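User: Fold this; tokens only.

Assistant: Input:
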Amino acid sequence: MAVRFGVAAVLAALGSACSVAQAQTTAFPLTAVACPTASQCTAVDRSGREVTFNPSSPGRHSRHRIDFTRYLVLKAIACPSAHECVAVNGVGVEIAFNPSSPGHPKAVKIDPNQPNNYGQPGLTSIACPTVSQCTAVDDRGNFVTFDPAAPKHHNENNIDGPDDAYTPPPSLPGLACTSVKQCIAVDTYGNALIWNPRTSGSKLGTNPLLSRVVKAIACPGVHQCTAVDDTGALTFNPAITNNSTALVKIDGPAAMAAIACPTLTQCTVVDAGGSEVTFDPAPPKPSDPVPAVLAAGTSLTSVACPSASRCVAIGAGGDEITFDPGAPAGAAVTVIDRPPR
């Protein structure tokens, strides 16, 4: 089942390239977004700030700096409730805060692993199945599980080591936790790793998924996950190793960036070219899903879908786009993040 973005369509939708470039120079890169409810989302950026907004009226938003470390680059966020969000940065620090009143939250080091020679160090993704349990993964195959209210008392271990001494340690760019006893991470070698985050890190199983670097994962149910790379999406049951459906091809001019699956029958992927594609992750249907350009020329970095009829995408230009994945055409682009003064 092939899904083609169409280079001509993307170029035609670009409109005025100058105006797009000008808009991005006045904004700041947003890196991740979470929406605990349909009326509240929180995004984080590369300047240590969070932006909380109602996707129905994103122009009215609040923006606060929450990371006062030297690194500042917030890489991921999870919001287990409307009153609690947990962000992580690139030096192993977690920051728990109330998005309605963030104040001056405390940054706590939870990943003690030192930088390596294979790339940028740090935590890459986070999932919080409950308000009292979060799990984060890093770019060296490690995980750490903690209570945001007492993060210093955490459980950490390695779950994904290299195959041999000459192979760089794998990064874990995507994570989903379907319960307090099951987390699924994807690595840069095309694998999905399933384990109990409350234990020392013994893997429950490994699923070889895709031949390329896996970018992200979403799990709408305990027995269903969908992972995505630059070639397509693959759905599998994390409870059964070596079990997956046929690859859903998502071919386009830009790299896939993130995925969200609000239901078992609906997933939405966004890419670095400003496009989204929504599809049923089950075996191929008679007709192909239709991609749509949300913000031509904008590198979309993350997406959250609090319901089947509402998704929120953010971009590297500080943009926010709220859209109905069933009818995404004409969705408004709102700049919600600008460089700190």
